[in-house]
């Protein structure tokens, strides 16, 4: 293959977008009721309730299911510390205890594997 043909970069086409009709000052002047103190305090209360749910989760499977639900809701950024602690404990448990989970079913194993891989832990498929 000719090396000259590989180095050809096609010209980038313009999208020809229309100018924005919304002015910056108008966007900044919009009011949202969700920025008020009532909504802010309610959000903090709910966040604390979920943190309490992490503490009250009895077994590993309950903790993993809670993490999975929070991730599916897109709220994992609010609970990164709690999620990290649980996953670090899970990895330590798997390394020290011959790699078997407390609940020996396919669902628990698959959920554990999925969450550990999603959060960047190098875990063997043989857990």
From TrEMBL:
GO molecular function: terpene synthase activity
Signal peptide as annotated in the record: none
Domain Terpene synthase N-terminal: 21-125
Listed InterPro entries: Terpene_synth_N, Terpene_synth_N_sf, Terpene_synthase-like, Terpenoid_cyclase/PrenylTrfase
Name of one Pfam family that matches: Terpene_synth
One Gene Ontology term from the biological process aspect of the record: terpenoid biosynthetic process
Protein name: Terpene synthase N-terminal domain-containing protein
